[in-house]
Amino acid sequence: MAYRILPAIGRRTLIKGGAALGALQVASPYIISARGEVPIKLGFIDPITGVLSALAASEVEGAKLAVANINASGGVLGRQLELLVEDSANDVGTGVQKARKLIDRDKVDGIFADVNSAIAYAIAGVTSEKGVFHIVPGGHTDPITGKDCKWNVFRICNTTTMDSAAISATLVKKFGKRWFFITPDYAYGQTLQEGFVKQLTAMGGTYEGDKLPINTVDFSATLIKAKAYKPDVLLNNMGGLAQINCMKQFTQFGMQKDMALGGALFELESITSVPPEAQTGWWTMEWWWNQPGVPHVAEFVAGIKKATNKPASARHWFGYVGVHSFKLAAEAAKSLEGIKMARALEGLVLPPEVALQPGKVFFRTGDHQLMPSIFTGEAHPPKGDPANVFTIAEAIAGETAGGTVAENGCKMTYPA
Amino acid sequence: MLQLVLFNVTNGLIIGAFYVLMALGVAMILNLSNVINFAHGNFLALGGYFAFVLTPYIGFWGALVVAPPLVAVIGYLIERVMIRRVYSRDPVYSLLLTFGLAFILQDACRYIWGTTGLPLTVPASLSQGISSELFFITGYRLFMMAIVAIAVIGLFAFLRYTRMGVRIRAGTLDLDTVAALGINVRLLRSFNFAVGIYLAGLAGVLAGGQIGLNPNMGDDLLMPAFIAVIVGGVGSLTGTLLGGLLIGVASALTTVFFPSAQEAVIYVIMAVVVLIRPRGLMGEEGMLT
Hints:
The structure holds 2 protein chains of 2 kinds.
Chain A: H1 11-27, H2 29-35, E1 40-46, H3 53-72, E2 81-87, H4 92-104, E3 110-113, H5 117-130, E4 133-136, E5 153-155, H6 160-174, E6 178-184, H7 187-202, E7 206-212, H8 220-229, E8 233-236, H9 240-252, E9 260-265, H10 268-271, E10 282-285, H11 297-308, H12 314-333, H13 338-345, H14 352-355, E11 362-363, E12 370-371, E13 373-379, E14 390-397, H15 398-402, H16 405-408
Parallel strand pairs in A: 1-2, 1-3, 3-4, 4-5, 6-7, 6-8, 8-9, 9-10
Antiparallel strand pairs in A: 10-13, 11-12, 13-14
Helix pairs in contact in A: 3-12, 4-5, 6-7, 12-13
Chain B: H1 2-33, H2 40-81, H3 91-113, H4 139-161, H5 163-173, H6 175-180, H7 185-211, H8 219-232, H9 237-257, H10 264-276
């Protein structure tokens, strides 16, 4: 005797069931919720090792804070963010290889790269070829948003033209027109020195200088040349640990008695790494933690302090703004498609909780360059708070210092 | 211009003296054990960081005395646990092993002390230039030169006048015969490795006082050390001494005329020496084969 324990499933029933299931895939809130469980992957490439490692670490920390905040408030387009961090090792080949790996194997939806201008520039070529949305948090060389600008690339930090234009007049006015440059011999240093020379010669100044390898450790030979030149100002354009070493030797040789110090960037990470006698000079600062009365700055500073036990620096801000810019672009475009996100971010004004500074901060449409305020001022030994090592003298509008899109040579073209 | 050149020759000798300290450590290990120690720069960093930790308790002078032997002890243990296992193999194995070790030590420093540079405070008495004219010869740089000179004389005296030193020199020439004479070659190699690492640790303390501390600080000092050994000649510590001074002076002089080539020039010197005299300036034919 046979017992039927299950209803027989006919062909028609099977087809109906299949159709219903298909409809559910499109219509059901459950399925949307399930899609939300697939994170949006962001590839973050920075020189975690090498002379720029302290700056890179801060950018990554800023990005991580942004990811944590965004995920806690529901993510982007209903999906969580996942940050994949890769070390470019301060090497162009390695950086490009990591970009290709993140795009081809990990299928990231956006790339963030790199502190090193030459690596950022090279990776922009890869992301453009692949059509991947790319934000450059901290690589300053001009061509990235200048003559070699690309539809998919946006930059958070200033251009070298912006930084050099912001501080040049101050250096001439305070100290004089005879300058000596110590400059790293790669993309960042070359365009930075070009920017300074353009400003200086327009004001009738003269200069000399050395372009040195990016990882130079001993600056004594160049400092001997600098002393012989008798400049009014020594512009230390080196970055990261190289800049720190140069500053230390400068003060060990007692050269601060003979000439002033200055330049484009002497970042918080670097100022706090040199002895008090080297905490000196006039510089630009791309973001500063001590802005009393500016909304949301204190929250951000506290967030970084809690997460890293460090004071918030411009590099933290770059990483933080980079990830938030991705969110703003995706939500304005309602898509993760590169072209739609790029179009959406053009001209977008950052909300106060992301801008974290006074004034209008926006991505310029013509070249995708963020236009913030540029702070100029003086580095000094700590006053009270150990991180209080810089006093802002002036805030200059980024667009005023940066020149027009036409002057910078960007001709933006989108794929057909 | 003449003054500038003379200043840079003097400055180059100071820089070269530091390379010598690094290179002698590299050469000691390479000559006896055929190990190309890629982690040498990271032992240097370790020396600097140890001094940083010790300075608040025993001062800079105390740290200068204590930190290098501590690094040497770590070197000795690493040799016992890891390096000696690859002595009998092709030198590529030891090269790969120390290459990996370099990353481990660097990341350990980064993990413990962070990526941000740290200052190693030196006595104020050493911080001043000896005169406004010779501003680049600071008390600290003179002190470094003196320490290097003492270390070099001490090392050469040790190798010439002590039983262990004579054994190391003999082992450099023919380790098999030394072993056949009943000398404990394993102990000899371990001790020699520790001496080489001691020199790295000492260089680390001295470098820390000059340029501060960071996890990568040894990386850029390692290549000049290797080049000093190759230029001077593998197997010859005197050659290494000359090689270090030569590339220091060449690098400083190049900065006067063609600054962006200050790094490249030492590789050019190495290439020329290898092409014209493959054994190096004072090396012996057949070493490291």
